[in-house]
Design brief:
The chain has helices at 2-13, 18-26, 34-41, 56-69, 77-98, 103-106, 124-129, 132-150. With 151 residues, it is mostly helical. It starts with a helix and ends with a helix.
Length: 151
């Protein structure tokens, strides 16, 4: 699992968003190609569409939870409940370790910081001032811990 944690970090350093980095690092375990995982998770970066809402790394965890336990029948309330329970547990662990699920809080943004679509340029300063890489690493560890527990 260490390789998957490293892969998530490498993907982020290559310019992928937080959600993409988490989802793509584990995609092959669920029969997804890396490209499919990157596309499925693309909209969740930057706190969902860069709106600074739910952290993209957490969203990546929730996408993986859906791949692991999601219902594939609308009538399958047991699987829905199992998935929601897993998401709630993952969210609680994420919040405990990071202090919040909210991207703007994690980034310590000033209230009413304007929402813009254009991503920031990935520079050394970007990686120094943002906790994203550490949060991605932590989210990948959370998923790895979950997988170890169920296997």
């Amino acid at each position: 699992m260490e390789n998957r944690v490293e892969k998530a970090k490498i993907l982020f350093k290559q310019g992928y968003n937080c959600a993409q980095s988490i989802t793509a690092a584990f995609a092959d375990m669920y029969g997804l190609t890396e490209e499919q995982a990157l596309r499925v998770s693309a909209s969740f970066g930057g706190g969902i569409g860069r709106m600074r809402e739910t952290c993209g790394a957490a969203c990546g965890l929730f996408i993986l939870a859906g791949l692991e336990t999601g219902a594939v029948s609308g009538e399958d309330t047991e699987s829905k409940a199992k998935n929601y329970d897993l998401v709630q547990k993952l969210a609680a662990i994420f919040k405990e370790r990071n202090g919040s699920l909210n991207c703007s809080k994690l980034l310590k943004l000033v209230k009413n910081t304007p929402v813009i679509s254009k991503p920031d340029e990935r520079t050394d300063e970007y990686y120094t001032k943002r906790p994203c890489l550490k949060i991605i690493e932590g989210a990948a560890i959370i998923w790895s811990e979950y997988l170890k527990k169920i296997n």
